[in-house]
């Protein structure tokens, strides 16, 4: 079968053009001429880029595709190329093309390139329309975003509205309510705040100095922090003002130019916490009262049980020890049973034990705190040291002196050294046997240290050193 | 119950109460060792065995039940002493005799006697 392919291609509705390796147009079909709106005579024998002048991206795209085919001998496609074509009337229209370049080889090298080109301008226009639709979609999404911002703003406003701390925004120098959340409105017992001034809505706070405070914040631009401040409010129009204890802040709002335009009021009602602390203090006092009462009962029982004349000395010792214990309890109660200062323990206990002889003491030391149990132990130890000194040591003579020191231990963290040195008293000898006092003193107050306390019976005067941990907050 | 000659471990953080307990148990003829912390009790138990022990339940805010477990393992009989009123011990110690402060030698002896039967 002998087919005339030139005729076949020539009749094809698809545009075809054939160029040689110099890109000279050697043949084209009628479809191509229709598509490019050219006469055969005007372009045949001319080079592609002379027949269809182009520059920029389109030229680059087309020439690189053709060069690629010439170089490799392989077909190449241009999916979309923008290529302006001159109309018959001389005007120029932008057209979009899709092109296939097929090499026709002879002896392994490219002799011709067949370009099959399709004008896809209409399709491209459709696509552009679709993209414009895309803009619509983007617009829609911006709209959706706006909606979500709006929702977000609403959510934030909801948080503001339902925040547990009371918050209000006051605007202008006369402090007009710009916003007030639920907690704030509940606190002041009013709903109709917006647009009104603080002084007109809450006249009772004017005399309490709060408006003056607001003025000060507005004028100075400095925030004011109120801690446990009492405030009386006429809640629900009741004649009796209700008392509140509040922690709050007046925070100035600044304009872009740096001047104050308003004040944010934010805080919370700590009335209940303050009441709880007060109640606790009452409880601790009550407990202390009962403990002391119990100590008194113990004292009474002891006195009743040890009535004999022979027990008189014992009664005196017991009474003094009980008083030392009670004094230590007093110190601890003042600090809610949290801690006590060594200085206070030593001073209070010595004074109670020796009376006027306190002037024979030289007391000095660091600021060291003890936890309750250790504080009581130290008080008892100091008491025993005092009674021993009165009986046998430096306080048994007017000339005797006692130097007491308490210092943080430079060699051990959170520990301190307590020392007691007697001098100018009678000559000291090591006592026979161990009574309660010596037993207590030699034990020290350190829970773990069996050897933390050292008693030295120097003939010139008794010396005592004790190491123990102190209380750290 | 005769505790004369027995080795008794006393665990009490309040030293004055510890002294009184020490005197009380010593007067009954026992040989006593007084410790004021759980740490010291554990290190003492590591090197010595005791026939009986009296444990304060709360030492500086720390409960002595782990110590009680250690004593149980060693087969040492023990009782609890406490400054609080009625104390609910963990189930495993529900039957351990417990004396309340202030206690007397009679109460201590009675509680120690109970340990022989439980």
UniProtKB/TrEMBL annotation, chain B:
<protein>
    <submittedName>
        <fullName>Response regulator</fullName>
    </submittedName>
</protein>
<dbReference type="InterPro" id="IPR001789">
    <property type="entry name" value="Sig_transdc_resp-reg_receiver"/>
</dbReference>
<dbReference type="InterPro" id="IPR011006">
    <property type="entry name" value="CheY-like_superfamily"/>
</dbReference>
<feature type="modified residue" description="4-aspartylphosphate">
    <location>
        <position position="56"/>
    </location>
</feature>
<keyword id="KW-0597">Phosphoprotein</keyword>
<feature type="domain" description="Response regulatory">
    <location>
        <begin position="7"/>
        <end position="116"/>
    </location>
</feature>
<dbReference type="GO" id="GO:0000160">
    <property type="term" value="P:phosphorelay signal transduction system"/>
</dbReference>
């Amino acid at each position: 079968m002998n087919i005339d392919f030139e005729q076949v291609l020539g009749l094809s509705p698809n545009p075809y053009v054939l160029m040689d390796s110099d890109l000279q147009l050697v043949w084209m079909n009628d479809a191509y001429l229709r598509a490019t709106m050219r006469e055969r005579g005007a372009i045949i024998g001319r080079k592609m880029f002379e027949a269809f002048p182009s520059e920029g991206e389109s030229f680059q795209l087309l020439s690189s595709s053709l060069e690629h085919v010439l170089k490799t001998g392989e077909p190449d496609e241009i999916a979309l190329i923008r290529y302006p074509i001159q109309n018959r009337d001389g005007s120029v229209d932008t057209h979009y093309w899709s092109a296939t370049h097929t090499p026709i080889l002879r002896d392994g090298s490219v002799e011709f390139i067949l370009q099959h080109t399709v004008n896809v301008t209409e399709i491209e226009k459709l696509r552009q329309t679709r993209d414009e639709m895309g803009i619509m979609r983007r617009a829609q999404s911006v709209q959706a975003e706006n909606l979500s911002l709006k929702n977000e703003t609403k959510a934030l406003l909801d948080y503001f509205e339902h925040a547990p701390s009371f918050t209000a925004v006051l605007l202008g120098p006369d402090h007009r309510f710009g916003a007030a959340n639920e907690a704030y409105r509940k606190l002041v017992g009013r709903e109709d705040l917006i647009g009104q001034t603080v002084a007109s809505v809450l006249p009772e706070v004017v005399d309490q100095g709060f408006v003056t405070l607001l003025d000060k914040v507005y004028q100075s631009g400095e925030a004011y922090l109120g801690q446990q401040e009492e405030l009386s409010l006429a809640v629900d129009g009741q004649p009796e003002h209700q008392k509140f204890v509040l922690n709050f802040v007046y925070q100035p709002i600044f304009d872009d130019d740096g001047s104050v335009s308003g004040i944010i009021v934010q805080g919370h009602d700590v009335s209940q916490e303050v009441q709880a602390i007060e109640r606790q203090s009452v409880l601790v006092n009550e407990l202390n009262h009962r403990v002391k009462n119990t100590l008194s009962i113990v004292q009474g029982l002891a006195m009743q049980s040890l009535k004999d004349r022979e027990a008189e000395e014992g009664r005196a010792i017991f009474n003094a020890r009980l008083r030392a214990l009670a004094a230590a309890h007093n110190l601890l109660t003042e600090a809610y049973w949290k801690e006590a200062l060594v200085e206070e323990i030593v001073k209070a206990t010595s004074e109670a034990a020796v009376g006027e002889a306190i002037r024979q003491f030289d007391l000095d030391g660091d600021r060291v705190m003890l936890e309750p149990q250790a504080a009581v132990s130290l008080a008892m130890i100091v008491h025993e040291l005092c009674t021993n000194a009165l009986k046998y040591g430096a306080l048994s003579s007017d000339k005797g002196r006692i130097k007491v020191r308490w210092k943080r231990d430079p060699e051990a963290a959170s520990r301190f050294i307590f020392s007691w040195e007697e001098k100018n008293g009678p000559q000291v000898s090591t006592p026979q046997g161990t009574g309660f006092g010596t037993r207590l003193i030699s034990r020290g107050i350190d829970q773990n240290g069996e050897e933390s306390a050292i008693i030295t019976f120097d003939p010139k005067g008794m010396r005592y050193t004790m190491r123990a941990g102190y209380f750290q907050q | 119950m005769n505790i004369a000659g027995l080795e008794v471990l006393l665990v009490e953080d309040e030293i004055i109460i510890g002294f009184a307990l020490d005197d009380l148990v010593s007067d009954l003829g026992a040989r006593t060792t007084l410790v004021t912390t759980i740490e010291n009790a554990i290190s003492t138990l590591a090197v010595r065995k005791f026939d009986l022990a009296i444990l304060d339940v709360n030492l500086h805010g720390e409960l002595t039940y782990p110590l009680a477990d250690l004593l149980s393992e060693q087969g040492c009989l023990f009782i609890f002493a406490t400054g609080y009123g009625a104390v609910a011990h963990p189930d495993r110690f529900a039957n351990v005799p417990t004396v309340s402060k202030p206690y007397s030698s009679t109460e201590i002896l009675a509680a120690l006697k109970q340990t022989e039967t439980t």
